[in-house]
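[job 0412] stage=fold_complex status=start
inputs:
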Amino acid sequence: MPLRSGVRTSASAETSGDGVPRTAAYPFAERTSLLEGSEVRALFAVASRPEVVSLAGGMPFVSALPTELITDAMNRVVHDRGSQALQYGSGQGRPELREQILDVMALEGIRAHADDIVVTTGSQHALDLVSRLFLDPGDVVLAEGPSYVTAIVVFRSYQADVDHVPMDEHGIVPEALREHITALKTQGRRIKLLYTVPNFSNPAGVTLSAARREEVLAIAKEHDILVLEDNPYGLLYFDAPPPSALRSLPETRDGVVYLGTFSKTLAPGFRVGWAVAPKAIREKLLLANEAAILSPSMFTQLIISEYLTTSDWKGQIATFRDIYRERRDAMLDALETNLPGLSWTRPDGGFYVWLTLPEGINSKEMLPRAVENLVAYTPGTAFYANGDGADFIRLAFCYPEPERVREGIVRLADTISAEHGMDSVAAMQDRTAS
Amino acid sequence: MPLRSGVRTSASAETSGDGVPRTAAYPFAERTSLLEGSEVRALFAVASRPEVVSLAGGMPFVSALPTELITDAMNRVVHDRGSQALQYGSGQGRPELREQILDVMALEGIRAHADDIVVTTGSQHALDLVSRLFLDPGDVVLAEGPSYVTAIVVFRSYQADVDHVPMDEHGIVPEALREHITALKTQGRRIKLLYTVPNFSNPAGVTLSAARREEVLAIAKEHDILVLEDNPYGLLYFDAPPPSALRSLPETRDGVVYLGTFSKTLAPGFRVGWAVAPKAIREKLLLANEAAILSPSMFTQLIISEYLTTSDWKGQIATFRDIYRERRDAMLDALETNLPGLSWTRPDGGFYVWLTLPEGINSKEMLPRAVENLVAYTPGTAFYANGDGADFIRLAFCYPEPERVREGIVRLADTISAEHGMDSVAAMQDRTAS
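[job 0412] stage=fold_complex status=done
writing structure:
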């Protein structure tokens, strides 16, 4: 079996077990006991076997990028500004790139100043650095349930607790948010952040409605909770654009830290993302960035700048939209055809569908058998800090070609059918997503 | 005056002062109050003015790299493996690059396995991640006095205390190390790490002797203190290679985490470094790396791999050695000529000379006047966590051409002379480095 199933809950030095000398003599910091591998992590090995249709990892389809665009940009950068590209740079990132990031964010209604931006090593590092700035042990982070797996890993690694607020097809539920805040405050807990992926969320594929955006921001403001808006997918809409970013509302801009990235609109291999933060936070964020890495890669920043200057980057994003829309359609069609009794979300953008399993099937336990059937997915438990999610699976349609997506769903349906011990998938109990 | 003089000791949100709305409503984590800008940081702005001879920043002279080497490697990578270069990768780094790193480290006597290596965003990020794994608030890190400025920033940012152990021209003094450990243990302090830059240290330019390497390792082992060996400069020796790395001694390999980088032997703009760690530590390091950035840049890793495969990288390092040797010679000659009464270290490699000022001159206070005289340096106080170092300055000879190095020293001598209020620099009190 090529998979370790499940989250590793106590990978302490003493129990990592294989006869190699232990580091018991070198005790880790307390926080390190909470640093755990995610289930997505174990899936990478599986996903790389070519015979497996991987609906697991959220890898963008970078083959859709014309390589001339990249090579042309690269060659101009090294030829014209080679010694700058190879050198250390500013910890905040290149001013030129930060100006261009303003143009990218303007597409989602955000008005900011280049000074407000800190360029980071993917938006993941911005997420890590903001957590580092704000989270003391025992602090609480409010997050959608389900929520992005590696955000949960980061929050926990700073010894914070993640409290999942229910969401429905319109995103996080404001009334539930209020109730969770009240309950936590009654318990004397300190809530530091509200973490949200408002557009085509990972993993649920759900978008926060415009009305709820205002309401969520008002609730956060009322309770002095900083909103951490993580928006990797906003420009990858399939029909209409999503509502404007939370950060776009001027009255709340001091209460929101916004995270963006080039990983989905260009390529993750460059590791370039950014944070937009109010001045007092941004100053600390910059110091944290410098302490962590001195400066983001000048080489990749310059290449992205050159690409944005000389290529039709908006046209390229439109191309990505077309590709992902076709795959989303393939997945939804195949689900209708092969798993008619089940329910799932219908994303208007992004990479993911969130599927509710028939009662009695555990997504984590089923995974090894799915892989035997040559299809991989991510169990829902990866997206909860509290062990919930066994009834759900995340299906990523971003990477395989449409025909492979269909084939993957057929194999998944076979796996679920066998798991259920039933003759007909159609007879499965119909359940709606909670 | 273009400089802020001195370390910022309390840059809290409330006091950052300019009328912009404050984040008092969003309290930072406790550790964030200790996240401070370094003096080196403030110097970047100064160093970039072309009329100033900067002996401040430790920027490698990347213009010595033939750009064809880089462009050829880039183009082959994007042409042959573009979709891999643009994608997410393994959190541990590419296996091929890790194999090549073994060849680089073999030059310094290190035998390891590719599995022992975690590729990081420069070795700075390895330093940050190791600190994150090991440092609880109140822990102590032993470090040379003086020590690398951004290591101090990192240790303090995890609420650890840095205890500086005296060094002389042969590196850290073993007897002093024993005394410091005993004193700290008597106080009930928990010592987690011994941080050292054993070769051509930053900032002192001093190399730990072979005999002391064994002794320091024995002391660390005796007291269960993990050694963090940071070796950016080891291959940039001017005459003979330095003694083999601390990590090269087989009996101590479980007690050492070794940090290496391509920033000085190739270019910092790629942000590729690495850590070599015993298995139990490396497993956590990998998880910490994934939590922080998901995976190091595939794009820059592939380019470096291609460069190492197809170029005479050892010849390029020899070229760097020749360049830096010439600049070191220029600096030492100019110091002899212009500041005959003072004392300084005589590095056998690396980037830095450490100069002792005449009694009564404060390196931090003198800096604005040096910049008026169009020369910049780093005040010694930057390299101590405890406010020491006002008698010293770090002079970096790595970046300016030899003639500019000489000019910089002439300007520095004028500045010191004026500061001292004396007619003749030769009359200055002769002091030896403590």
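[job 0412] summary: Chain A has a mean pLDDT of 90.
[job 0412] exit 0
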